[in-house]
Structure formats: structure tokens, C-alpha cells
Write a structure and sequence with these properties.
heterodimer; A: alpha/beta; Rossmann fold; 4-stranded antiparallel beta sheet; 10 helices; disordered C terminus; B: mainly alpha; 4 strands
Chain lengths: ~250, ~375
């Protein structure tokens, strides 16, 4: 096994005495689609925030022998850890192509920044093909459909050459077809990357997840395949009694 | 057709800069009296500072309310040299400026000494503001100070700077500032030909600054700067430290303001605290806002217009001119928040939306900033 994986040990995030993430241990391996699920407020997004340097945390987060908790956010990105946000945050005024190009800035030397773009770099062209937005390359990102924006963000991570991708609810608000396309996209790019998806939609999780981690109240409740998770009584406990509870629906389906 | 459009987008702005150059360097000297030309030179100095403000504020989103400080650093550095030149011309190589004899005991502070050298002065005009801006900017941006706090901080610096100048009459001439220059690097300042030369230097400096920001705006750095202005946190997750990007723009703006100030001193024959204080800084900002802060030519043309307006209105209505300027400012901010320069592109946008084309119809009008960015 190579060292291209993300190791989390005893990760704790505290806000004014409240432990949003409480001593979480996780090992995220390359080549698997890893899903992070759990009720609202379970600490999923906070965990991603901590890994990417957005909130201060204690414990250990290691990638390629680098301690990410002691690294500044932009250095974490340069170390190959990329993320998306719940609401797509592309640069609306820039075109699809420009959005991807601007994400490739970390590959360029500082003094090259003084020059205008000439032609399309090959890695941008590749990313355009992979995310399927090649025909919309000159469209301003602001007019893209919701799903397309999320794909563009994933494309930007590809251009950044992110070895670890942390995706926060990428399919929220997507149509069924868009979800399928997203899932297939994640499978295509996931074979040589470490991909972690925070998700609520259980159908999506069931179809695409290789490994599922359930979080509850800041802690890891269970980990395993979809079948193992669904059979776990503690997971059922957490989800029981919730009005529109995804696991329940899934069981009845 | 599409090729023509791309061509126009790339080279059109350069053509516009060339037009400004022709107007300043060929038309103006031919039609204006030496007095008016010298006045125009003064506005050109403000415009040079304005171009920098356009870069920092319009593109970088940093409301630099204290550019008077950098304008003053350059202005005073140049004025100190001119003062020493004048003294040395009449009193030998060890002579000290007249005001030091008048207000002090006739001894010159040690830090004045290197300004006897013209080469040192020219270097200081660029290096001094750059150093100050790097130290200041580093401290400010790394601590993620932005928005109104940044504006207040820079404005306070202008107040401090002017107050310090007023309080140090023996070293800096105090409230009177530095004036009565006789020579400019060996050229007699009373000779109209030499005055015209300095005017030309200022105009060339303005054109060079405009070409520089044109290149910056179309470069990847320019795109990144606008991206930082619009979504600083997002840029962090592209792997850049926004502080560094802002720092580059801030330092460039500081150097431009300094060069403007340095040329202002010989053109007007004086630099005083009132040229660099908070009010002066705000008037610099006003010109940029009026012209269109994010446009390529907006800041420069706006600064020229405000300069011209100040002179014309103060000649016609010596007491009320500031009200007119204030009124104009309010009207522009209310109806053309992106500046007078945006009128053209706004009209064009209306024209476009009145005859919708299938591809464009659904697209929102891009913000003026990005329109020029491409």
C-alpha cells in the first residue's frame, strides 16, 4: 500500500466548550468512494473544515507524512487536499474555462502570473472532458445549472491535482439524472484518488459507496459497507424516531 | 467577426491608452497656455496615483483611503532633493535649506544628507513607499484586516502622517511644506521649456502606468486579483494566500502614488501637509470613483476630471466649488455606481438586451470589472 491516504487520529474540534468533533479516528484509503453520513449537526462538515484548515482542531491529520493541522489552508491545498462547499462557489463572472484555469495557478511559477493566458493548458482540457462541460467552456459560470456548477468545482479540484477530495453534499438539489452522472463521474476519477463525500441522500450512498462512516454527535458511530451499516443496531437507533428518516425509507423500499 | 471582437478586446484598450498619450503629449502642449499646461501636469500626477488606486481598490477591493501617505513619501523625497539642490546652488555643497535656518539653528538632520544625491532620491521614490507598503500590507493582510477596518486604518495613517509633518517644522518645513525650488536635476525651473519637460515626464509616467495595469488586468494575476476581491476565502482553496496577492497590488499602488507625488512637487513648486493629508487622500479616491474604479482608464480620467473641476469651479465660484464637487460625487454614486466610465458599456448592454440573441439572452450582463478583464 502506498502512503497516498489520509489518516485522522483523535481529531477534536471544540467551540466554546462544545465538542463538535470528538476524538474521531478515520483512515481514508485511495481508490475507494468513502461516504460520510449522519444526522444534521453530527460534525461531518466541521470534520472537513478541520482537515482543510478552516477551523482550529487538535489531534492528528496526516497525509504523505505531513501534519495538516500545522499547515495553513492554502498550503494544505498545495499538498494535494481539495474540497468543495455545500453551496457551489465557482467564480460566477469568469467563464468555465477561466474557472478551471485559475485553479491551475498552483502549478505555475509566481512570475508567470504576470502574463496573459495563451491557449488552453492540457490539464484544463482534460478536466473539461472528464466533467463533461467541454461544450460550455466559454459560458460564464454564473449561468450554469446547479449540477453543472458542482461538476465545475470537481473539475477545479482535478486541475489542482487534488489527491484527496472532500466533497460536501455534491448532489444536494440535483435531479436524478444529474445524480447518476455525478456518481459515475466520482467513480471515474476515484480510482486513483482518495474521495470523501458527505451525503444525506441514502439512495445515492447505497448506489455508489464503497465504505460508509456514520457520525453522530461528533463521534464515529459505525463504519463499514452499506449492508453492514444498515444492519448495525446503533445506527438504527440514531436514525429511529426521526420523522423523515432516510434509513427507514431505505429499509421499506 | 468573432476574430475582430477578440482582437478589439485585446488591443482596443491599448488603442485607448495611445489616444490618451496623444492627447497629453501632442494635443495639450499645442493648445494650452504654459500656465494651463502646468495645471494639467498637476492633474496628471493625481491621475498616476489614481491608476494605482484603481488597481488596489477597483480590482483588488482594498479601499485605500490613505494614498496621500505614499503620495507624500514620493513628494517629500523629491522636494527634499530639490530643496537641497536650490540651497547648494546658492550656498555651496554644504548648504542647508533656508527654512532650517529660519526656524531652527541651521543644522540639518542626518537623514536629509543622502537626498543631496539625485540618484539616491530617485531610488528612494520607488523603494521607500514599496518598503513601507510591504511592511504595512504584510501586517494588515496576514491578519486578515479588510473592508471598513482596512479603510479606516489607511485613512488614520494619512492623518498621522500629516500631523507628524506639521509638528516637525524644523525638519520638514511643517505646515508650510517644502517650496521655492529653483532647479530640477540641474535644469532651471523658471524656464518654461524645462517646465514643459517635467510635464512630459509626468505624462509619460502616466502612460507607462496605464500600460502596466493593462497588462496586469489581462494577466492571470489580474484574474486572480479580481477573484480575491470577490471571494477571498475561495481563492485560499485554490492554493493561494490571498494576502500575497493583495500585497502585490497594494505595493504597486503605493509606488504609483509615490511617483505621482514626486512629480507633483516640481510641477506645482510646493508640497505641503495639505497635499498628503486625509482630505487629499479622499479627493484622490473621489476621482477614481467618479471615473470608474474597476475600469482601465476610469481612474486616470476621473482624477484628471476632478483636478480640472477643482480648478475651474474654484476660479468661478471660489467659495462654493466644493459643494458642486460633492453634488457630482453623490449623483454619480447614486446613478452610476461603477463610475462615469461605465456609461458607455451600460448603454451598450441596454442595446444588446433590446435585441436578444439566442446565446446571450439568458446571460446576465457581466460586471464591468470582468468586461474589461477579458
Amino acid at each position: 500500500m502506498n502512503d497516498d491516504y489520509l489518516e485522522i487520529r483523535g481529531l477534536t474540534v471544540e467551540f466554546d466548550g462544545f465538542r463538535a468533533v470528538d476524538a474521531v479516528d478515520l483512515t481514508l484509503l485511495q481508490g475507494r468512494l468513502h461516504f460520510l453520513i449522519g444526522p444534521n449537526g453530527a460534525g461531518k462538515t466541521t470534520l472537513v473544515d478541520a482537515v482543510t484548515g478552516l477551523v482550529p482542531a487538535t489531534g492528528l491529520v496526516r497525509h504523505r507524512r505531513q501534519d495538516l493541522l500545522r499547515t495553513k489552508p492554502h498550503r494544505i491545498v498545495r499538498a494535494g487536499i481539495g474540497r468543495t462547499f455545500q453551496t457551489a462557489t465557482v467564480f460566477e463572472g469568469l467563464s468555465v474555462l477561466q474557472n478551471l484555469d485559475i485553479a491551475g495557478g498552483i502549478h505555475r511559477r509566481a512570475w508567470r502570473m504576470g502574463f496573459a493566458r495563451r491557449g488552453t493548458p492540457s490539464y484544463v482540457e482534460e478536466a473539461l472532458e472528464i466533467i463533461g462541460l467541454a461544450s460550455l467552456r466559454d459560458r460564464p459560470a454564473g449561468v450554469l445549472a446547479h449540477g453543472q456548477k458542482q461538476w465545475l468545482e470537481i473539475g477545479m479540484l482535478l486541475v489542482q491535482d487534488a489527491r484527496v477530495m472532500l466533497l460536501d453534499e455534491p448532489v444536494a438539489g440535483m435531479s436524478t439524472e444529474e445524480r447518476e452522472e455525478t456518481g459515475d463521474l466520482l467513480r471515474r476519477i476515484g480510482s486513483e484518488r482518495t474521495i470523501v463525500v458527505i451525503e444525506h441522500d441514502m439512495d445515492f450512498v447505497r448506489t455508489y459507496a464503497d465504505v460508509v462512516t456514520v457520525m453522530h454527535a461528533g463521534k464515529v458511530l459505525a463504519e463499514g459497507t452499506v449492508a453492514e451499516i444498515q444492519a448495525d443496531p446503533r445506527v438504527q437507533q440514531v436514525y429511529l424516531g426521526r420523522a423523515h428518516e432516510p434509513m427507514q425509507e431505505a429499509d421499506h423500499a | 467577426m468573432k476574430q475582430l471582437q477578440t482582437w478589439g478586446r485585446t488591443w482596443g484598450p491599448l488603442l485607448a491608452i495611445a489616444l490618451v498619450a496623444v492627447a497629453l503629449l501632442m494635443v495639450a502642449p499645442a493648445v494650452l497656455s504654459p500656465f494651463r499646461l502646468n495645471n494639467l501636469g498637476k492633474y496628471v500626477c493625481w491621475a498616476i496615483a489614481g491608476v494605482g488606486i484603481g488597481l488596489a481598490w477597483g480590482r483588488g477591493g482594498m479601499l485605500v483611503m490613505g494614498q496621500g501617505v505614499f503620495f507624500g513619501l514620493g513628494g517629500y523625497a523629491m522636494a527634499m532633493h530639490l530643496k537641497l539642490e536650490a540651497a547648494m546652488a546658492s550656498g555651496g555643497p554644504d548648504a542647508v535649506p533656508d527654512f532650517m535656518v529660519l526656524y531652527g539653528d541651521g543644522t540639518m538632520p542626518g537623514w536629509w544628507e543622502p537626498f543631496r544625491s539625485g540618484a539616491f532620491t530617485l531610488a528612494a521614490i520607488v523603494v521607500l513607499p514599496a518598503l513601507v507598503a510591504v511592511v504595512l500590507g504584510w501586517a494588515i493582510f496576514k491578519r486578515r484586516v479588510k473592508g471598513a477596518y482596512f479603510a479606516i486604518l489607511t485613512q488614520a495613517l494619512a492623518v498621522v502622517f500629516a500631523t507628524l509633518l506639521v509638528a516637525t517644522i524644523k525638519q520638514t518645513g511643517g505646515f508650510n511644506g517644502l517650496n521655492q525650488f529653483t532647479q530640477f536635476f540641474g535644469y532651471n525651473l523658471y524656464d518654461p521649456v524645462n517646465k514643459r519637460m517635467i510635464y512630459s515626464i509626468a505624462s509619460v509616467a502616466l502612460v507607462v502606468c496605464l500600460v502596466l495595469v493593462w497588462q496586469l488586468y489581462r494577466s492571470r494575476f489580474g484574474e486572480l486579483l479580481v477573484a480575491t476581491r470577490d471571494a477571498e476565502e475561495r481563492v485560499r482553496f485554490l492554493g493561494h494566500d490571498p494576502a500575497n496577492i493583495k500585497l502585490v497590488a497594494f505595493v504597486l499602488a503605493a509606488v504609483m502614488a509615490s511617483i505621482g507625488g514626486a512629480l507633483f512637487a516640481p510641477i506645482t513648486g510646493i508640497i505641503s501637509p495639505s497635499d498628503v493629508d486625509a482630505t487629499a487622500s479622499i479627493l484622490l479616491i473621489a476621482g477614481v470613483a467618479l471615473g470608474g474604479r474597476a475600469l482601465l482608464l476610469g481612474p486616470a480620467l476621473g482624477a484628471l476630471a476632478v483636478g480640472f473641476g477643482r480648478t475651474t469651479l474654484s476660479e468661478t465660484f471660489p467659495d462654493q466649488w466644493t459643494y458642486f464637487l460633492g453634488l457630482l460625487f453623490i449623483v454619480v454614486i447614486l446613478f452610476l455606481p461603477a463610475g462615469l466610465g461605465s456609461m458607455w458599456s451600460q448603454a451598450l448592454g441596454r442595446l444588446r438586451s433590446s435585441r436578444p440573441t439566442p446565446t446571450r439572452a439568458s446571460a446576465p450582463t457581466p460586471t464591468d470589472e470582468l468586461e474589461v478583464a477579458r
